[in-house]
Amino acid sequence: MTIRTRFAPSPTGFIHLGNIRSALYPWAFARSQGGVFILRIEDTDVQRSTQEAVDVILDGMRWLGLDYDEGPYYQSQRTQRYREVLAQLCDAGHAYPCYMSQEELDALRERQSAAKCKPRYDGTWRPEPGKVLPPVPDGGQPVWRFRTPLDGTVVWEDKVKGRIEIANAELDDMVLARSDGTPTYNFCVVVDDMDMGITHVIRGEDHVNNTPRQIHLFHALGKEPPEYVHLPTVLNEQGDKMSKRNGAKAVTQYREEGYLADAVVNYLARLGWSHGNDEFFHRAQFLQWFGLDNLGKSPAQFDEAKLRWVNAQHLKAMGDEALAELVRSQLERRGVEGDERLPRICALFQDRCDTTVALADWAMRFYTEVSASAQELATHCTPSIAPALETLAQHLSQCAWDRTAIAAAVREVLAQHGLKMSQLAMPVRVLVVGTAHTPSLDAVLELVGREKVLARLRNRPQLALEC
């Protein structure tokens, strides 16, 4: 059997990390099993679905590398197919027209609630042998309902939750199509999963209540349902369900904030799945290890500090050229163009950074004017160090411009003025790159370039440095 999975988002808002995890696991399962991964856009909610939301879904999946083999299919383009299947169900006696108005249905539910009964459709228009149905109202447009079995239970073995059994008496006759002919969610899902040959439905646990209804539809259509895998909820840092209303960010915002796609995949994979105690792994390892048996049963809580740590590990492991391209994009957003130095700048600072935004902050010091804080200047650039800075500028104006020669010039100035490295290096760093703490001084000066270094050393704030 070829494994066929799907991701079926509704384009009614931006897609956040909790949503995209429901794409990651079916994608990973299909890839790890040599199967097929399908993207389906469930856009039957015409009033709330937008093309902008579709674009965000596609952009987020493209950024994370969650490539699909088929699709995107759009439910809004399959209306004729749903009509055909509805007619098939009606001909087989599995569906029937219901003329109960919304007002009547609301009144029924109020009476049931007052009687402390579960609000549900009571089967008024369900045809049964010997039953006399109410007269069809003039001009009434019916909804079409499914004839749910009255007795027995629905049972399935969930790959995460284990055996689930629900009595049919708990289910009412769900609506398959509204009075305007629009098909409903549960109906469309079953028709799509059937037509697309889905073997494993991997989705959030909020769909558990839909599953018995969908299983009934599969059986009514003469098909075996797929295997179901209901994933535990992703919680935000406050312990609430991750959602737009609870402050969740769009997936693509993490890209803007300097996170790496592989790091986000790594972190998301651990939000509900594990491979021993491994926290940091690459995409190829994830696909090699991934299986449904190691999915967690408890809700997973998002932790942005942990995400930043994972991102830092991936950033440190990246090659200089690849990392430089990402940082170049960050610089371009700020109106700055990187040059051939950028890969070496990235290599110099990547161990100190946890996002490409932080790395771009460092790179900016090499491409734009810098200004140290008044506190940094007052602390490190005192009048007593001015002679040594002038001597260093003289040496640097004459030496070869490479790390070895720059380091030798610094040592000569230290010896000539009887200084320790920190006494000279910190004021130089403050003047040249605006901060007292950087990697190796000779490497920083070489990358800044002779002209800028000399200009920044000699254009010292007079108030702090005049003897």
TrEMBL record:
Localization of this protein:
Cytoplasm
Its EC number(s): 6.1.1.17
Q: Where does ATP bind?
A: K244
Q: Which residues form the Glutamyl/glutaminyl-tRNA synthetase class Ib catalytic domain?
A: 3-309
> Does the record's keyword annotation contain Repeat?
no
Q: Which PROSITE patterns match?
A: AA_TRNA_LIGASE_I
* Primary enzyme class: ligase
Listed A to Z, the keywords are:
Aminoacyl-tRNA synthetase, ATP-binding, Cytoplasm, Ligase, Nucleotide-binding, Protein biosynthesis
Which InterPro entries does the protein's record reference? Answer: aa-tRNA-synth_I_cd-bd (IPR045462), aa-tRNA-synth_I_codon-bd_sub2 (IPR020751), aa-tRNA-synth_I_CS (IPR001412), aa_tRNA-synth_I_cd-bd_sf (IPR008925), Glu-tRNA-ligase_bac/mito (IPR004527), Glu/Gln-tRNA-synth (IPR000924), Glu/Gln-tRNA-synth_Ib_cat-dom (IPR020058), GluQ/Sye (IPR049940)
**Which ranges belong to the motif 'KMSKS' region?**
241-245
* UniProt GO cellular component terms: cytosol
Task: Show the Gene3D superfamilies listed in the entry.
Answer: 1.10.10.350, HUPs
What SUPFAM superfamilies does this protein's entry cite? An anticodon-binding domain of class I aminoacyl-tRNA synthetases, Nucleotidylyl transferase
Task: Provide the catalytic activity annotation.
Answer: tRNA(Glu) + L-glutamate + ATP = L-glutamyl-tRNA(Glu) + AMP + diphosphate
Please name the GO terms of the biological process aspect recorded for this protein, alphabetically: glutamyl-tRNA aminoacylation
GO terms (molecular function) for this protein are: ATP binding; glutamate-tRNA ligase activity; tRNA binding; zinc ion binding
What Pfam families is this protein classified in?
Answer: Anticodon_2, tRNA-synt_1c
- What region holds the Aminoacyl-tRNA synthetase class I anticodon-binding domain? 323-459
What is its biological role? Answer: Catalyzes the attachment of glutamate to tRNA(Glu) in a two-step reaction: glutamate is first activated by ATP to form Glu-AMP and then transferred to the acceptor end of tRNA(Glu).
Return the PANTHER family for the record.
Answer: GLUTAMATE--TRNA LIGASE, GLUTAMATE--TRNA LIGASE, MITOCHONDRIAL-RELATED
Q: Which family does it belong to?
A: Belongs to the class-I aminoacyl-tRNA synthetase family. Glutamate--tRNA ligase type 1 subfamily.
State whether it acts alone or in a complex, and with which partners, per the record: Monomer.
What NCBIfam families is this protein classified in?
gltX_bact (TIGR00464)
Protein name as it appears in the record: Glutamate--tRNA ligase
| Highest classification ranks of the organism | Bacteria, Pseudomonadati, Pseudomonadota, Betaproteobacteria, Burkholderiales
